Amino acid sequence: MQATSDMSLISLLVQASIPVQLVMLVLVAISVLSWTYIFSKRAALKRANEQTQRFEDDFWAGGDLSVLQQSIATRRDEHGALARIFDAGMTEFIKARRASSSPDALLDGPRRAMRASYQREMDTLESHLNFLASAGSVSPYIGLLGTVWGIMHAFMGLSS
């Protein structure tokens, strides 16, 4: 006796039990979301590298730092993370210099402003990494659950 059953992907998906279909749906959703985050992160890092290179070229060109800071302040999004960190430090330095603070305060304020700006930029660049790490560690176990459920379902079908 020969069993004639359709082994196409669609047929297998339709014939799977509801829990197995739910597991597959969750895995597909996690995969799509992960790939979306991966490609957007790749584009963001590429853009950040290009912007950083442009800023470094401008910074090390030897021009007036006040002029550089003014150009960054007017077009913040075009210059990138490193330029925004520089802008935060330079703005705070100018404020401290106008207040004719002590030499320690003259450097401490810009240092704090740059540290805060650095942390904001890192938070932006590191966004969605927790999801990617969790998805990478949990997905095999979710897939294993679906496999075990499907095998149990197949054995129950064989026994009846």
Topology:
Elements: H1 9-15, H2 18-59, H3 65-74, H4 76-79, H5 81-98, H6 103-125, H7 129-159
Helix pairs in contact: 2-7, 3-5, 5-6
Order of helices and strands: HHHHHHH
Tally of helical runs? 7
Q: Tell me the Rg in angstroms.
A: 28 Å
> How many beta strands in the DSSP annotation?
0
Strand content: under 5%
Principal-axes shape call:
elongated
Distance between the termini: 18 Å
Structural class, by secondary structure, is mainly alpha
What does this structure look like?
With 160 residues, the chain is mostly helical. The protein has a domain at 51-129. Helix content is 84%, strand content 0%. It has 7 helices and no strands. The protein has helices at residues 9-15, 18-59, 65-74, 76-79, 81-98, 103-125, 129-159. Helix 3 crosses helix 5. The radius of gyration is 28 Å and the shape is elongated. The model has no long low-confidence stretch (mean pLDDT 89).
